[in-house]
Structures
1.
Amino acid sequence: MRIIKSEDITTAVTNLCLPAAVKLPDDVMKALRDGAVMEESPLGKSILNQVVLNGEIARNESRPICQDTGYAVIFAEIGQECFVEGSTIEAAIQQGIRDGYKAGYLRKSIVDDPLFDRKNSTDNTPAVIHLSTVPGDKITIVLAPKGGGSENMSKINMMKPSDGEEGVFKFVVDSVIHAGGNPCPPTIVGVGIGGTFEKCAEMAKRSLLREVGSVHPDPRYAALEKRILDEINRSGVGPQGLGGTVTALAVHISTYPCHIAQMPVAVNLNCHAARHAEVTI
């Protein structure tokens, strides 16, 4: 049994906050550069070149990629041979977000009551934390800041099994086209199929962490990802919704077994600033 102090988790999360806000992962930057080359619209090409330049400036000058530094979404895997000493892992992570957003002078965007008071929590907490147990004696934490504009374009549909592949295809494509320029395209399209109402939504968001353009291991889903992506990019929405041929950089599907009477499908879009940072303790 390996003992990990909760304050070490807090420090690790604190140190993730600024890199997550200022540094686009290499795979995202490559996809944006490739998109700028492939884009057929002159305006769209100009926008994508500006997006790439913005990413480079943010990385080189350690400045946030976007003024919306996001809702802090955490995916944490804790090894079954770990014991967290001190506070709970959840409390340690929340303190890390609190400290990291303050230290990095990052915008705090969370309100403490969703309907009535809507007062800013002043420290960007609480974060949303997804915890899972894995073999081993390490803890891996991924921080994925999620902007409000792209998150607002999320969709979920409790579909019937009889809707089949065509139903899923139409729902995902229509969701992206309906979103237009609101999620700051080009987007990464996360899709969750199966599970329950909440499970498919969590899968859709988690799939945004896949390497951009990676291929689903099941050739049937890989073909569906490509088919959806091609149709989205034929829609004409384009970069920032101003027309063009690069509306999405990738479509990533995740699946889970589901009830015989159900086929839930969720769509979660990430703007072109598809930020995340990771640490293993």
2.
Amino acid sequence: MKEIKAGKITEEVKRLCIEAACDLPEDVETLLRQAETKEESEFGCYSLEKVIENFELARRDMVPMCQDTGIVVVYVELGTEVDVVDLSLNDAINEGVRQAYVSHPLRKSVVTDPLFDRKNTGDNTPAIIYTELVPGDQLKIQILPKGAGSENMGALKMLKPADGVEGVKDFVINTVVGAGGNPCPPVIVGVGIGGTMDKATMLAKKALARDVGEHHPDARYQELEKEILTEINKSGVGPQGLGGRITALEVRIETFPTHIATLPVAVNLNCHAARHKEVIL
């Protein structure tokens, strides 16, 4: 068994949280710069120019790109030959989140109770942690800080199998276009299809952690990603909802087997600051 000390996990999670908030991934930066060259609207070009200027300043000064530094979503792939020592895996991750949000000027946005006692926890914990057991002796941690502006625009629909491809397309497109400027477009669109209602929403968010240009392995879903993106960008919503050609940067679909009588579809949006970082230990 390979031992990984909890302190190392905490250290890496702290670093990833800070970097995710302050340093836009290079693949997303490339998409935004390409979008600026394609945008035809004057307001849209202005918006993209300011978005690019903002992330350049954030990276230079290591300050947050957005005041909403999100609730931290963590995807873990835990090798079956890995033994986490000194603390539990979840405790080590939450300690890293706590240290990041206390030591750096990151807004703390988590409340203790969702309905009755909405008191701030003071350190942005607990994180939302998904752990998958995989073969091997590695521990992969992906950090995805999720802001409320884009998160609030997500949606789930339990379609009928007979609704088929057109039903999925209509739901996804209407969700994104209906969100307008609220999720701070241009957005990245995560789509989960299949499983159960909870699995579909998890898949939609998991899709947002993929690297730019990483498509569904099935060519039919790849084509569907392209078709949905094209239709969204015909909507005229544009950057920041001010009108224009570029409303979405990418559409990413994740799928899972489902029951014969159902077709769950979930949409989860990421704003233009598509923050994600990862490490393998």
3.
Amino acid sequence: MTFKTVKKYTLPIAIIVGIIGYRWFGVLNFLTPYLIFTMLFFTFSKIDFSALRPSWLHLWLILIQLVLSITVFYLLRTFDVVVAQGVMICVFCPTATAAAVITQKLRGNVEFIASYTLYINIVMAVFIPLIYPVVRQGGAAISFFSLFIRIFSMIFPLLICPFLLAFALRFFPKIHGLVVKNSGLAFYIWAFALVIVIAKISKYFIEYKSIDSSVIMLLVGSLFVCLLQFFVGKIVGKPYNQLIAGGQSLGQKNTIFAIWLANNYFNPVVAVGAGAYIIWQTIFNSIQIYMVESKG
């Protein structure tokens, strides 16, 4: 198997390794924050900071994400509240920190999605505590300020700190040049982090005791909103020449955050949707990368 072939199938390989070796790789979960930080540092070191400015497309995508999350909750809550919460989290969950890495691999606009990732994470740190009292329906009661601080404390070290460090590195041209030269490592760091995340999720599903109608609906619902968000993001982004970045902005989610939120503030069953979402989005991204790599 050639290196080019390995590159083409990196994400599917990560899924398979994570599933098969879930007992071993799952214990490495403590490494995930460090891997994400390093991955983002390499990615941010290469971007043009002058291009990180808001646009109308940023605003449209944010509005779509906010409105769609509320819409799916109210459409589904009459059928099953747990399913409604699980699918809603798959929508309002902010863009994944790895989205810039995948966008770069797909030859999209890294600056656009890097800026959108910053904006949507900050917006959701405010939006989620605002709507939580309305949608929790049995979850743990918590004040707006407490939930905001907890969410922001997750965002700052993993997203904003590597951003600031990469910016500061510009004042040291030789070191910056060395980091930029090796920025391609970000994709493989993400692939290793993905193995760990898949292992953790696989352990959860393999050891899960009850497969009822809610679980099945969450699996199907997360697949539907995954495809919907990638599709809508691409459609909205196309007129702005941001087909790839638009799709990744809406479709690729920070599912680690979603699982944390579901387990701590909703019914733990809600986390099934977020867990399944990472499988669906990784398969979708694998297909996209395969198509891009096949074109050469």
4.
Amino acid sequence: MSQTYKATGINLKSMPLGESDRLVTILTREFGLIRAVAPGARKHKSKLGGRSGLFVVNELLIAKGRSLDKITQAETKESYPGLGKDLGKLAASQYLAELVLCQADAEQPQEGLYDVLNEHLRRLEQLPTTSVNASGNDSVLAHLSHGIFHLLAIAGIAPQVHACCITQQHLMPDFTDPEWRVGFSLDAGGTVSLSALSSQSAATVAMGVEKKARVPVVVGKSMVAKTSSVSYQTSVSTLAPPRVHAKLNAIELMLLQQLAGAELTQLNTVLVNGQGSLSQHQSADTAWLTVERILRQYTQYHLGCSIRSAALMDACFF
């Protein structure tokens, strides 16, 4: 970078600095995450006051500093004021921002991450203001889950949801059987067929074998070889089946699978079987709660970070 550089970025975090400044963490297209001082931003009539706010997109002129860079000019291109007017939307937006902070690189272009974050913030803002209590795919939880999945995909660690992680066979939700379930494993990286898991467990138990080993024994000053029969279990790390951290019903798997798409498909909250009689009754809202919780566990497991905003989400929805 030169002594002064231009960047387009969205503010993800800010904190007071000194008597009147703010330290802003910004996701930029060109240089990834940067931390820069907004001088005088806390003064009443400061031009940088509103431009250093959360989720404001600016075109920036930044001067390099020894320890911290300094914003010298900022022109706002976009903002999301609606996010701050709804507690659920605000919590979901902060949740997505935390994920970005966990995975974004510094001094590296982050165009994909930048575009995905802005797209999902825009979708959250456009939801009805009563979206905390909205139904199905119009809810904050549905759009939050969609955003989480896409951010994980940008990082290359999105869970596998269309096929079994053990057999790689396609998984189809079975809405005719109320007891039908599929497993979800953080270790394996996504969905697992419970029947395949059971078969692998049985195979692991049957893998105990006996091996003849030549064990050296000291006799006086000489070494002689003695044959010993050793029973051992084949390496658990390579044969042990993955742990199942959750079991999903047909509706929950269907919701999880559609997250990989660019848009969320509108769903009915009650599903019926081919004859028209009810085969399963579960609201999409309850299913989205399960999906979000699974994605939260998966994200924290694979990114190694705790999602603090999740506590605020729980306060909104539980």
